[in-house]
Amino acid sequence: MPEYLFPGVYVEEIDAGIEEIPGVATSTSGPASESLAADLRRAIQAHAPGWTGGNESDPGVTLVNVFAFLAESLLSRAAQIPERGRAAILQAAASLAALGRAGEAGRETLKRPHFFSGRLLDAATLTAEQDYHREKLRRHNRALLGCGVVSGLAVRIAGTTDPGGWHIVIEPGYAIDRNGEEISVPFPAMLAPPPQGDRAFVTLRYWENPCPPAPAPEDTTSDTPCVEEACVIGIKPDAVAPAIALARLIRSEGRWHVDLTFVPPRVPRGAS
């Protein structure tokens, strides 16, 4: 759960340390392979009862064992990938998924509720009305403005000569993520530098925070009275979309610095 900083802005941090991942045995006769093969057999019997595989000499059983061995090998290799490589793979997968969702949403036809005398205005209808206007704004932002920093949101390191006195400052500003969500940081935000690692990103992402349920009488059901359209500022090993990378931090001579060669994505001046 992100930590509250001030209205509309929350912070979160992720440990940049690298933890060892235990290896997985690759023997074809190991318990992991046998367990995978048993699971495959049960799945096949449930979906295709007539499929070959009644005894150990059937070709189908051989295929199941081969698939189980390959799956176990993939798990073993995945455990040997360095943490930085795993983070890069996850970032690429998240970026592709975000682009896919944005593309699918953009191809759908917008539909808004039709109101007429006598229509029941229930929660679903009112929510559909909100969703229509919100999605139309997202499409407007993506098509005409793009994504990135609109204004402000500069990142700097400030503090005293004491290493424990340094902190990261994010200036107020405005941004649009690749989904078309508008993100506002109304006041300067300060974060503690990462306790370890030599490289990190200051990221900004849109976040909808359900407000706590209001007290309700015993005979009614309490529900979330509102949704706060907030943002989360974080320090992460990598910037995973739809989060926006505001700056890249590098550690040098025992302290953190803002990498001046890194240029965050920005909305073109003519668009804003």
Topology:
Elements: E1 3-6, E2 9-13, H1 31-47, H2 59-80, H3 83-107, H4 123-145, E3 148-152, E4 155-158, E5 167-170, E6 173-176, E7 182-185, E8 189-191, E9 199-210, E10 227-236, E11 244-252, E12 255-258
Helix pairs in contact: 1-2
Strand order of the largest sheet: 1-2-10-9-11-12
Instruction: Kindly report the average pLDDT value.
Output: 78
What's the number of extended β-strand segments?
Answer: 12
Question: What coarse outline follows from CA principal-axis ratios?
Answer: extended
**Radius of gyration from CA coordinates:** 25 Å
Helix proportion range = 25-40%
Low-confidence stretches: 18-28
Biggest sheet record: 6 strands, mixed
Tell me the distance between the termini: 33 Å
Helix/strand structural class: alpha+beta
Strand content: 25-35%
| SSE topology string | EEHHHHEEEEEEEEEE
Task: Describe, in plain words, how this protein is organized in 3D.
Helix 1 (31-47) crosses helix 2. The protein has helices at 31-47, 59-80, 83-107, 123-145, and strands at residues 3-6, 9-13, 148-152, 155-158, 167-170, 173-176, 182-185, 189-191, 199-210, 227-236, 244-252, 255-258. Strand 6 and strand 7 (182-185) form a beta hairpin. The chain starts with a strand and ends in a 14-residue tail after the last strand. The strands form 3 sheets. It has a 6-stranded mixed β-sheet, with no helix packed on it. Strands 3-6-7 form a 3-stranded antiparallel β-sheet. It has a 3-stranded antiparallel β-sheet with strand order 4-5-8, with no helix packed on it. The longest helix has 25 residues, at 83-107. It contains 4 helices and 12 strands.
